[in-house]
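Title: Prediction job returns without error message
Component: structure pipeline
Severity: low
Priority: P3
Assignee: unassigned

Description:
Job completed but the reporter wants confirmation the result is attached to the right record. Sequence as submitted:
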Amino acid sequence: MAYVTGDTITATEYNNFLNSTASGLIGWNHMAGTGATVYGLGQTDIPSVSANATTITASQWNALFTGMDNLVNHTNVSITAGTTSARSAGQDVAVVSAINADLQTIAVAIAGGSHGATAVAAGSELLSSASSTRYAGSHTVEHTFTWANANNKRFFFNAGGKVRFLFTRNGGGLADGSSASSKDGSVDELITAIGNLDMGSAQTVRSGSGETLTTNGLGNGASDLTGTYTSLIKLTQANGTYTSMTMEVLAKCNNNNYGDATTITMKYVLTDADSTDAAYTSGNLSSVDVNAEFLGQTDMSSRLVVPTTAQGLNPIYTISASAQTSNATA
């Protein structure tokens, strides 16, 4: 309903600001507490008032306003000026007409994975899987992340948490293992084009650019996953000598219903589809390096971007375990 200055706010109406789960009226407790589906941050619920209460106290309003401020600060959305200004006993809540609209602005941000949040911190390398020293073919890696329960996983991603993939090359493909082959140059271009690849709740973002975007699954995030792999991105080398080379990142969870899943597995696949991989003899007359068509050692690594308490969320949630579940060079 619409409010004007002087209207009386009933206990039911105040409690709806806290607890409603209806479309267009998502209450603070549903978006910030345990929630469900795309909502929930694992924060402590704000207590409801008695159903027969005749007065909503200043402290009760201020509890809601403080909670809203914390979410605004964390998600970095804009709300109506003055909506959440603290009240004291006897003051009118003159801006109450804006409260529901502002709550929905916050709810949309949380449902989108708080992608505007800056109170997040990139962690150090969590898992690293290196290939054979030199190879021709493919390097495939799977990294699995586990949360204590499905709620904690949802709280992590809703607050702006992300799984980050970083692709590097440790050594060259030529005979001494330090010098780069021409295929390594193509790998380096894919590495630059991927950059940091961050899978959040509702989308995946790469910091790099370039090469051919063969599969664009960047509109998918953790909340879109099922029990079978979803391709988030597949890049095909476009500028180098070996334009059949691809890098693909896929993800799945351990349940067809994301809401019930407790683990997420990331799959990273570098494929050199070129069929001319040959090891030359050390005495060849053209002085070609014996491993001229081989790749050097590649490294697929994972880390987390974790929400922090810096702008009002407390507690925050992260994984309980991680593991390399496969690492194959062919």
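Comment from assignee: result matches the submitted record. The chain has a mean pLDDT of 91.
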